[in-house]
Amino acid sequence: MIKIMLIDSHEPYLEAVSELIGRQKDMATCHKLTSAAKAVEILRNENAEKPDVVLIDADLKEKEPVGLSYATYITHNFPSIAVIVQSMQKVAIYPHKMEESDVAGFLFKDCNNKELLTAIRVVASGKKFYQREVKDVLKRYRQYLDAPDDNEPFLTRTEKSILQWMSWGFSDDSISEKMQICQKAFALHWNNISRKFGTVNLGDILRESIERGFLDTSSSAYSYAKATRVQHFY
């Protein structure tokens, strides 16, 4: 029986995943938590029931994506426990950091049930599991890192969306709210964007983005965006 600890600040998601696990003959949820700090307390407690697998949300609602830090901590300090990280943010830097930290698995939160259950079984067997879509994101990210400096900047969908909102004059806070990402995640995206363009000057970045056709400069797109809570651009 694979014992699983679930850590997620979104309680309905916790319940849904726990219910899914409960329908499996070879799995059981041993802990459902909304706090990563509480999870570490349990893992340190010699008398507490220990999981085989920890499924943790990278985007725990504690002002910043602390799930990444706790995933690394658990991996390094409890090597017998396999850690799977999930995230709503489809950005390369999250799985890239987890891969470097030797975390067992990574999935985006819109994965299907089959992928999630497969990931749990694979990491419980001592192997690694990174979702196919995650692998594709990492592949494109590595291609960017290995590309010559004069190559066209590689931008993720989220980075393009952030630049689009910036081009319309929206503040960092407004963009974070509209795209439903935390300030820490926004800062990570901006750091990636500025590194790719080789400058922190927003005017230069926007000018080059327009020249390369990354941004929609039509007035109709701006009018639609103002009335839309979440808008992603491809």
Describe this structure in words.
With 234 residues, the chain is α/β, with parallel strands linked by helices. The protein contains eleven helices and six strands. The chain has helices spanning 11-22, 36-44, 67-77, 93-100, 113-124, 132-146, 157-167, 172-179, 183-197, 202-211, 219-226, and strands at 2-7, 27-33, 53-57, 82-87, 105-108, 129-130. It has a six-stranded parallel β-sheet, with helices on both faces. The model is unreliable at 220-234 (pLDDT under 50).
List its traits.
single chain, 234 residues, alpha/beta, disordered C terminus
| Overall average pLDDT | 84
Fraction in helix: 40-55%
Shape descriptor reads elongated
Query: How are the strands of the biggest sheet laid out side by side?
Result: 2-1-3-4-5-6
Query: Could you spell the SSE succession in H and E letters?
Result: EHEHEHEHEHEHHHHHH
Number of helices: 11
- Biggest beta-sheet profile: 6 strands, parallel
SS-derived structural category: alpha/beta
- Give start-end ranges of low-pLDDT stretches: 220-234
Strand content: 5-15%
The Cα radius of gyration reads: 19 Å
How many strands appear in the DSSP assignment? Answer: 6
* Gap from first CA to last CA: 43 Å
Secondary structure: elements and pairs:
Elements: E1 2-7, H1 11-22, E2 27-33, H2 36-44, E3 53-57, H3 67-77, E4 82-87, H4 93-100, E5 105-108, H5 113-124, E6 129-130, H6 132-146, H7 157-167, H8 172-179, H9 183-197, H10 202-211, H11 219-226
Parallel strand pairs: 1-2, 1-3, 3-4, 4-5, 5-6
